[in-house]
Design goal:
The structure holds 2 protein chains of 2 kinds. Chain A folds into 3 domains: about 90 residues; about 160 residues, Sandwich (Immunoglobulin-like), CATH 2.60.40; about 60 residues. Helix content of chain A is about 40%, strand content about 25%. Chain A contains 9 helices and 13 strands. In chain A, the strands form 3 sheets. In chain A, strands 8, 9, 11, 12 and 13 form a 5-stranded antiparallel β-sheet that branches. Chain A is flat, with a radius of gyration of 30 Å. By secondary structure, chain B is mainly β. In chain B, about 0% of the residues lie in helices and about 50% in strands. Chain B contains no helices and 11 strands. In chain B, strands 3, 5, 6, 8, 9 and 10 form a 6-stranded mixed β-sheet that branches. The interface between A and B is large, with 66 and 66 residues. β9 of chain A pairs antiparallel with β11 of chain B, so a sheet runs across the interface.
Chain lengths: ~350, ~150
Amino acid sequence: MVSIRLPRLFEKKRGSRRTGSQAWGRAGEACFYAALLAAGVVFTAMLGRRVVEAPGGLASIGLWMWLLTLLLPGALLSIGGSGLARLIHGWGRSEEGMAALRRFPEMFQPSGRASDMEPFPSVPPWENLNNSPGTILRYRLPLESPESWSVFGFGLFAVLWNAVVVLLAVTAGVDFVGGQTDWLLLAILVPFLAIGVAGVVIFVRALVLQTAVGPTQIEIADHPLRPGDRCDVYLGQGGRGMFRRIALSLELEELATFRQGTDTRTERRVVREIPFAEWRAVSIAPGRRFEERASFEVPAEAMHSFASLHNAVTWRIAVHVEPAKWPRFTRHFPIIVLPQRTGPALLNVPPSKLAVVGSGR
Amino acid sequence: MTAGSVQERLEPRVITEFDRPSRRYDPEETVRLRYHVTGTGDAVVRVIERSALWYSEGKGEEDLGVCFFERLTDLESLPPKQRRGEYAFRLPASPMTYEGTIVKIRWCVRIRLFFVGRRDFVSEHVFDVGELPPVQLPLQPRAVGR
């Protein structure tokens, strides 16, 4: 039985499989990058020729102008060249072959073997979580604070937007002083001003919420942890006044990054929450702070911490705070959970890696 | 691999036999398996790639990590001359097989055949590392899109 396989103009995606030929797809991609590269070469040659033929040479154009005109051909050259190089590099290689090449570049030979020797592959490094000593317990954990970035984002938006508003207002004012009234400009200015004021209000509110309640401090006795480990925790909560509730829990969160059209989106989902301490009707006197100790146990059947390029499984201590006069908030302190012990596992770890493994002990 | 030529249709198949019928291993254990390539007729295989890897499934883009990779190019050890093979590799300490809600991690061995003048063929065989129970959601999922 014979069949003639021709390239398809359109293909279907069935799950993670595509019906089209990978070779034709790569050839098309190569043509695209080659075209970009060729366009970059042609533009660069044309620009170079104009400079050479100009009466005053480069001086007549100016260095900055010359650099500016090089932006477009430079971008074409870099995108086309790097894309083509990547395709040539991966030509004829399988998905796992490419992954092995990235992981074991020195071992990748036609008949070479490669095997993993890292102590805990795909477990995120924990050196940055262990480099701050605690005052009561051994380690002070850093705060994972997306709220701070939100405040920064609100502030940046407020500054940039209001700079535009000021420019428009100055233009409108100059026109008004000169005896002219540009009604279109005024019509644009009003909603711009409203958005600018709203931006400042949102920024100030976020800043007050972030700073009014006071800092949260978490220290732990041991890190990294293993499934089944029990660990002491110290909590320090600043602020003053009444707190309806302060609670601690251990959370397992999954994080997946994916592309939706041209957007890159990240979805987070808390898949496990283990409350282990709670205090109600807490009153903090001015100049003091709330300090308590508790302990938690990492479940024996727990998944270890995991992080790859687009996916992650993370453990963290969550501090849930409900002030009497402010909105409730939660602060997170990430921790690392290593895989379960499997007998004499660490005996096989190279000595250079053992220092890293043992650094938290 | 190659398209646009007149080809005899092949139905390659790779049958694997793990040293442990349950296909469940602990981290850092050694996995041994045998394989048998069938359905390739007289087609010449120029390369076989044998690998062991984990890959992610779920909502995120797929990630993968190779823990073992071997590329055989000696024609004497390839079909049609040699249709059987075996290999072994030691598992790393992590990651473990994980059945989460939006993130899942699977382990597999892949045997990929590169034919002369034909499209390559890959056979994948899943096994488990560790014995973690699947995640069950006791609380309402909180999804935050960014």
